Amino acid sequence: MVLFWIIIYRTYNKLICIDWLFLSIAAAVIFGISNIINKEVLEKEHSFEFLSVYYLFNLFIVLPFIKNINTIDYRILFAIILRSIFMVMYMTFYTKALKHMQISVVGPLTNLNPLFVLGAGFLILGELITSLQILGIVVLLIGSYVLNSDGHFKNWGAPFKKLFKSKYMSYMIYSGICYVGVSLLAKYILRDTESFTLLFYHYIFTTLIYLGITFFIYKGIDDIIEGIKLDGFWIFVSAAIGTLGTYLIYLAFSNPNSSVGIITAISRIQVLVGVVFGGRLFHETNIFLKSIASILMLIGIYLIVI
Q1: Tens digit of pLDDT for each residue in 221-275?
Q2: How would you write 173-206 as a 3-class SS string?
């Protein structure tokens, strides 16, 4: 009962100014739609081919706004470059998993990312873990277990075997570890940098890294042309709305009245969009059970970040 009133009290205090709240909800819905489009495109595209074209389009979208960019010092520049490297690793693992797994499974598994951030904060920064966060971890793990059970609760060990035997499940774990660098560096950069400036430089360096990989490891310009020919329109649509969603999240974070924890929790609503609408679109199984698991995981995230 005490924990319940603590949750209510903290939530009330953080929702007094709600302009950033609407930004977070809008971004979550946008990201959910973008993920569905990406899944459809990846049915035909190679993951690196897709990512190279995707980030190239992102860069083209923000280039016209170069006059709005603020100057940054070498310290922030280095942090942005490092964050871009983590982002490339995160997106690569995530996209490979999304290509080969059901969107109604991949989406909810990204809900484990805040758990990795919490663990990093405890191990690296010495941050304390509260009783609410412990409760959130338990709820999050229960949701993850339900998600991987596929409804076969009699065989209680099956979800664990699935987690450790699947290569693409492992990719989701790796992406979660990389997400720690992406998240912590974003918080550090946004303390001294305007949100659109981070977005602009992020796309520059991430695009350059992907183009470098494409030209040195794959077929270079041929892969990019092929990617545009196959699904260039839908990749552009996904890039455009993805850029908008990212900017809205950055705006929400930069609001002095905002709560990083609540923004993080709300942004995960994109998972429900992917599970409910994406799962039905791609005729995936156990959508109701996966929706329940996603809601449990969202509750767990909220308890962790509140």
Answers
A1: 888 888 888 888 999 999 999 888 888 887 777 777 666 666 777 777 777 777 7
A2: HHHHHHHHHHHHHHHHHCCCCCHHHHHHHHHHHH
Which residues, 6 or more positions from 87, have their beta carbon under 8 angstroms from its beta carbon?
178, 182, 202, 206
Gap between the Cα atoms of 173 and 67, Å rounded? 39
The answer to whether 250 and 24 are in contact (CB under 8 A) is no
pLDDT digits (tens, 9 = 90+) for 186-195: 878 888 888 7
Q: What is the amino acid identity at position 196?
A: F
- List alpha helices for the chain, DSSP H: 2-14, 19-42, 47-62, 74-100, 103-109, 113-123, 131-149, 158-165, 167-189, 195-217, 221-254, 260-267, 269-273, 279-281, 287-305
Residue 8, judged by CB atoms within 10 A of its CB (0-12, 13-18, 19+), counts as exposed
SS3 101: coil
Alpha carbon 89 to its chain centroid, in Å, reads 13
